[in-house]
Structure prediction request, 366 residues.
Amino acid sequence: MEKEMTKNQITKFQLFFLLIQSQIGVALLSLPHAVEKSANGDGWISTIIAGVAVQVMLIVYWQLLKRFPALVYTEITKKVVGRFLGKFLNIFIYMNFILVGGLATILFIKLINLWLLPLTPGWIISALILTACMYLAVSDIKIIARFYVLATSLILLLWFTSVLSWFTPKDYQYVLPIGSSGMKNILLGSNNSLLAMLGFEALLFFFPFVIDNKKGVLKTVSMANLFITLFYTYFIFITLITFSTDQLMQMREPILNLLRGISYNMIDRVDLIFLSVWMVPMATSIITYLFAASKSLNLGKKNYSKAVVLNGCILFLITLIPNDDAIITLFNQYVSYLSYVVVFLIPTLLLILSLLMKKHEMSESR
Prediction:
């Protein structure tokens, strides 16, 4: 593992874009609808709170990872709690990345079917998407990082396109008075935002590959989190002042509806043009989960590509499950519970135990 990391090191600049691309995906397009159900006009506050929660976890990750700078998440578990219990926890970690990746792929397919290719069978779209994702996921992390840096330009395209929507009517009364939804509803809304921001846990697998990983990494990941938080908050705010509560409740992807209202003499259906381009950022989150799931098996570099293909096939089988709204909602609910355990609970417990037992990488080598 150490030789592999020496050859495939990434810079902190690349880590910044790796985290951004891992977090931004299909969930952004429907997030205003999800947050509106709980927080109403205060949805933008919910996103800020979610960003603060992510920052707290990034600090927890940093404190844990700097104690084991050369180990990935599933290796740290075995170092801290022992091989038997560590392997047991790693089952949950692996399942989380597979199921979240499967859910992201299902939502991706459903979006393409709904907006672009309504007559194309879902399994064909799934096969095409996962083949492309597997092709990149089998590459070295350095190549993945370079691709993510280039793909970030497409995120800036979304922001630029959204600027054009400011010429459409806006009503700030939809978000006033601030805080009228109550703290309970705002916190419920932050739960939806937090789930949409998942992907930052990929740091637990990226960290060992970062050049000189003990210096400046916390600052880098904090800047990435700030970017994501402001990015999400901006889009939720702009949709909140564009559409009424009743309208947002009826829209599955409010951001696409926002772009749908933009048209010019030479360009029509900006939403479809954007969605065609946005498929790349949506695919990057799937690539990250394929990478993390395959790395969590700890099979070494020789068997890593086989693990990626195997996991890609598992994701394909997951997408064959009937994907009506009720099943997707139930699937999303159970995946959310598992994500809270793997992303928040287990790393926190590992940090506490490593501090109490004074375990770190140097102590293991003595």
Notes: The chain has a mean pLDDT of 86. The chain is about 75% helix and 0% strand. The two ends are 19 Å apart (CA to CA).
